[in-house]
């Protein structure tokens, strides 16, 4: 509701005030539905690819198709959730991208690219803490705990799960 004050009397016009963010605009809804459509398309591709996996070994319930099928189903559920959120939930008004936001995006992309290049030459345990510390810093983390302890623990957990337990070559 738009309210205007004339002297001591408030006048209400019955229409939403521009920029209050009470409902998503058509562009925001379209953007949400486009993202949901892309994710749903990827989910269908993953599910079709998973159905085409053949194995000479009987893996039982947890065969080679299981994990890709779970990922495809989760992607599809996420697409439905994004579409429902875009259609049903009111969103605040969105402004144009800021220079700070674009710089943070560029830093994240540079960190990921640098991680990929460095991991090609160096071991996972040397490279991953720097990527995580950089991502934490770009995300606003400060202090020793955020920039040292969190990346070190996350790297140790990732290496323990993938490098030691699952024996994925890192």
Automatic annotation (TrEMBL):
Location of the DUF1468 domain: 36-170
Q: What is the lineage of its organism?
A: Bacteria, Bacillati, Actinomycetota, Actinomycetes, Pseudonocardiales
Query: What is the name of this protein?
Result: DUF1468 domain-containing protein
Q: Does the keyword Cell membrane apply?
A: no
Concerning InterPro entries, the annotation shows: DUF1468
Positions of region (Disordered): 1-25
Species this chain originates from: Pseudonocardia kongjuensis
Does this UniProt record's set of keywords contain Transmembrane helix?
Answer: yes
Keywords, alphabetical: Membrane, Transmembrane, Transmembrane helix
Sequence ranges of Low complexity compositional bias = 1-14
Superkingdom assignment:
Bacteria
The membrane-spanning stretches of this chain are 33-54, 66-87, 99-118, 124-140, 147-166
């Amino acid at each position: 509701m738009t309210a205007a004050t004339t002297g001591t009397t408030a006048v209400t016009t019955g229409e939403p005030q521009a920029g209050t963010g009470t409902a998503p605009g058509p562009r925001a809804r379209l953007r949400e539905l486009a993202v949901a459509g892309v994710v749903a398309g990827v989910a269908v591709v993953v599910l079709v690819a998973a159905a085409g996996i053949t194995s000479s070994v009987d893996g039982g319930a947890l065969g080679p198709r299981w994990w890709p099928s779970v990922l495809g189903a989760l992607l599809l559920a996420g697409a439905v959730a994004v579409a429902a959120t875009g259609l049903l939930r009111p969103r605040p008004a969105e402004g144009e991208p800021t220079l700070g936001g674009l710089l943070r995006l560029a830093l994240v992309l540079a960190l990921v690219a640098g991680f990929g290049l460095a991991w090609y030459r160096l071991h996972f345990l040397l490279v991953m803490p720097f990527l995580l510390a950089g991502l934490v810093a770009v995300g606003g983390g400060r202090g020793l705990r955020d920039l040292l302890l969190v990346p070190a623990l996350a790297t140790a957990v990732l290496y323990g799960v993938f490098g030691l337990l699952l024996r994925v070559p890192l």
